[in-house]
Specification:
Helix content is about 50%, strand content about 0%. The longest helix has 21 residues. It is elongated and about 50 Å long. Keywords: Membrane, Transmembrane, Transmembrane helix.
């Protein structure tokens, strides 16, 4: 799958549920019974943050370049220079 198709699919899957989420917020706000007291406000708070996160992920899609790379501390690759002799940046014994 090409990168363009993947970007379009990610945008579509993020944009499609936004009207549904807004409708659900309307239902919670207008049609909650009075005996629920402040519970609808808590539900609306959670729904609003989720809606903002969905919009944010649609507009600002972040690609983690090294998301699947294994963890290796960068200090282990410093073999020469001033930092290699430093005690602060020395490689822990578990990585040697």
């Amino acid at each position: 799958m090409s990168a363009v198709v993947f970007d379009i699919l990610v945008d579509v899957t993020n944009l499609v549920p936004i009207p549904f989420k807004m409708f659900c917020m309307y239902v919670v706000y207008r049609h909650s019974p009075a005996n629920m007291e402040s519970l609808p406000l808590f539900i609306l708070n959670v729904m609003m943050w989720e809606l903002l996160a969905s919009i944010d992920s649609t507009l600002f899609f972040v690609v983690c370049i090294f998301a699947f790379a294994p963890y290796r501390p960068a200090v282990g690759r410093m073999r020469s220079g001033a930092f290699a002799k430093s005690k602060v940046l020395s490689v822990p014994s578990i990585y040697k």
